[in-house]
Inverse folding.
């Protein structure tokens, strides 16, 4: 708590970078916010509210201009995604999807791990990685319990470890597939679109990042089950019966689930076909933010049609009480990050840092590699959202200073921030599965280092060779 004001005071009074006095004030506020973000001395969304007090107080910006950042249009893209996720969770659709994928993949040790990787990765494309892990965690524990009760032959500890790591890391990897899949993606897209007044298309992001996420998930399967932690557990009738029993308990697809599925499918379809729709008519123009809110609002309008006697069939698929579980803090965090980035840019600090780094960094494939390398290992000890807030202006300005398209550095930096795999504090999913007791820190470090290195290589190659083709840079 004391470190934040201390860092701010040192940056202002000592002025180590010899910047002008107005820029020193901005730098002091940035030092305070970043210190509290890194140490999590107070909740991160609360830190994100500081610009609303400190910017007007220190005459950095007006309250009106500062508050505008908290209403950035990209924030509503993520809000719509949150609403879709709430509806999927409320009507238990996520559990049905996960169990059916596991049933299709089979019940040998390796196939169960693969099934959880695919199910978790798919859900994490649309829900936050933390929420996805929380959903899959109890299902995985129940499968582990069934195999333990029936004393299946094989290395049970390796199976438990692989399954826990599979849930955490496939949540992280699946989240990079879509703009709304994880908060760092939304943060970077919001910053980029505001700075360059250029939209990053939802489909273009998916075309680049979904194959990358799939390769990372297949690598995860191979590293955990084939190389580091082979379990040798063969197909199990007990596990098969457990999965079948869980699916039977869910029963047939209910009316609310069908309606949520239709709205979810239509929203995803509009995101994918948006450009085609805009090109064939001139009456209106769709964008990703509008589509997300349209999908969210539709959930409140469409009646649930439930046949449960205790529920009103005319009540919407979502009601306002459901939104108490929405991650409002993440939305505030985006706003605070955008406000801070704006102030740093207007003070000339970001431009100066980018130009300074550009003198030594060179350009090309090596620079993309170094940015990815730095991002993934910094994310092991720093919140990935806070990291992207801080790094987005730096890498974009660096790209401008060396004559590169800023997406060539910004996207690998953002993707790498979500792939930290070595430490429990790297991402919330890592912390959740570490708390299960099935994961030892040495095993997470060993497997996580391998996954980090694979992620660095794949992200660098995808960004350098495929990004210019898919996003037409």
């Amino acid at each position: 708590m004391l470190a934040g004001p201390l860092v701010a005071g040192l940056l202002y009074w000592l002025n180590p970078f010899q910047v002008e006095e107005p820029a020193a004030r901005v730098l002091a506020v940035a030092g305070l916010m970043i210190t509290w973000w890194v140490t999590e001395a107070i909740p991160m969304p609360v830190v994100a509210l500081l610009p609303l007090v400190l910017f007007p107080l220190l005459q950095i910006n007006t309250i009106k201009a500062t508050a505008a950042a908290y209403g950035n249009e990209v924030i509503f893209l993520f809000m719509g995604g949150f609403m879709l996720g709430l509806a999927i969770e409320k009507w238990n659709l996520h559990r049905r999807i996960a169990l059916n994928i596991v049933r299709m993949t089979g019940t040998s040790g390796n196939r169960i791990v693969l099934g959880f990787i695919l199910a978790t990765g798919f859900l994490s494309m649309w829900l936050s990685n933390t929420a996805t892990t929380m959903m899959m965690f109890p299902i995985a524990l129940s499968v582990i319990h069934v195999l333990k009760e029936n004393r299946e032959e094989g290395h049970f500890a390796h199976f438990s470890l692989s399954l826990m790591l599979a849930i955490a890391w496939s949540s992280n990897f699946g989240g990079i597939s879509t703009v709304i899949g994880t908060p760092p993606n939304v943060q970077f897209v919001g910053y980029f679109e505001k700075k360059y007044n250029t939209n990053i298309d939802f489909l273009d992001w998916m075309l680049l990042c979904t194959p990358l996420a799939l390769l990372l998930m297949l690598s995860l399967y191979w590293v955990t089950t084939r190389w580091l932690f082979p379990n040798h557990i063969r197909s199990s009738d007990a596990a098969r019966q457990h999965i079948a029993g869980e699916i039977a308990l869910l029963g047939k697809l209910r009316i609310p689930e069908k309606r949520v599925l239709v709205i979810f499918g239509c929203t995803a379809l509009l995101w994918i076909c948006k450009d085609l729709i805009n090109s064939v008519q001139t009456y209106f123009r769709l964008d990703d933010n509008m589509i997300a809110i349209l999908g969210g609002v539709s959930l409140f309008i469409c009646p649930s049609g439930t046949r449960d006697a205790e529920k009103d069939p005319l009540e919407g698929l979502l009601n306002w009480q459901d939104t108490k579980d929405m991650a409002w803090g993440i939305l505030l965090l985006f706003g605070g990050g955008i406000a801070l980035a704006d102030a740093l840019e207007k003070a000339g600090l970001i431009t100066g840092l980018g130009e300074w780094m550009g003198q030594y960094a060179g350009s090309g494939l090596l620079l993309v590699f170094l940015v990815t390398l730095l991002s993934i290992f910094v994310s092991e000890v720093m919140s990935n959202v806070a990291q992207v807030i801080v790094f987005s202006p730096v890498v974009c300005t660096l790209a401008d200073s060396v004559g590169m398209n800023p997406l060539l550095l910004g996207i690998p930096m953002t993707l790498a921030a979500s792939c930290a795999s070595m430490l429990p504090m790297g991402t919330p999913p890592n912390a959740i599965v570490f708390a299960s007791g099935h994961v030892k820190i040495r095993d997470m470090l060993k497997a996580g280092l391998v996954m980090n290195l694979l992620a660095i290589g794949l992200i660098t190659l995808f960004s350098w060779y495929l990004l210019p083709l898919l996003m037409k840079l």
Remarks:
- The longest helix spans residues 441-470.
- The chain is about 75% helix and 0% strand.
- Residues 73-325 form one domain.
